[in-house]
Structure formats: C-alpha cells, structure tokens
Amino acid sequence: MKTLPKERRYETLSYLPPLTDQQISKQIDFMLEQGYIPGIEFEKDPTPELHHWTLWKLPLFSCRSAQDVLAEVRECRSEYSDCYIRVVGFDNLRQCQTVSFIVYKPGASRY
Predict the structure, then answer these.
(1) CB atoms inside a 10 Å sphere around CB 26
(2) Could you give the CA distance from residue 66 to residue 1 in angstroms, rounded to a whole number?
(3) What angle do CA 18, 43, 54 make, to 5 degrees?
(4) Structure pTM?
C-alpha cells in the first residue's frame, strides 16, 4: 500500500489528485444547480484550522455559469499569484457556507 506524500491537507478534495479544469467546472456547475452563491477566497499561508480566508470582491451573486466564476478565479490569481485560492458556495437559506474547495495552489500551473 502506498501512502500519500507529506503535505498540508485543507479539505476533503485535497486528498484526491489535483482536479482538472473540467472537474473544477463540474463542481462549480453543481454548486450553481443547488442554488449556492459562489465566492472566491484567497490566503497566502493558510493553516488547516484557519477557516476564514480573505474574500475576493463580494460573493458572485450574478454568476450563472462556471465560466463566470473561473474568470474571477483567473483575475484573483493574476493579482495574488502567491496565494492559495478556493471557491466557496454560500447557501442563502441556511445562511452558511456549504461547499469549499481549493482551485489554485502557489507553484501550480492551473488557472
């Protein structure tokens, strides 16, 4: 049995291999289908117990497709390329964050 390499893990999806662009789009599409409001957060050196990251702009209330969200991820990355970036989904009925996954790690070649 092979073990995972030693590195920080931030959420459930971080135990999987890095998501492809298509898989990220599908996750965002699922969030939008559930009625969740997407948001983008970033942090330079997150620790696993740090739950509150810096919010990039306001939540994306008007986004209707994964491409709208990914365009904002690219914009965030261009300004904060040395930070971790994650997409979160807010449920306006429960009034809480229900989904969160990292889409960019510094040093990675994604978005």
Answers:
(1) 13
(2) 37
(3) 125
(4) 0.83
* 7-16, 42-51, 69-78, 92-101, range with the lowest pLDDT: 7-16
Q: State the sign of the Cα–Cα–Cα–Cα dihedral 9, 12, 16, 22.
A: negative
Question: For residues 93 and 75, what is the distance between their CA atoms, to the nearest angstrom?
Answer: 29
Q: Name the DSSP letter for residue 58.
A: S
* Token couple for 33: 């289908």
Tokens linked to 16: 């999987």
87, β-bridge pairs:
40, 101
Q: Nearest CA to 43 among 92, 91, 98, 102?
A: 102
Give the SS3 label for residue 72: helix
Residue 95 identity: Q
3-class SS of residue 99: strand
How many Å apart are CA 72 and CA 56, to the nearest integer?
A: 9
What 3-state class would DSSP assign to 3?
coil
Whole-number pLDDT of residue 85: 93
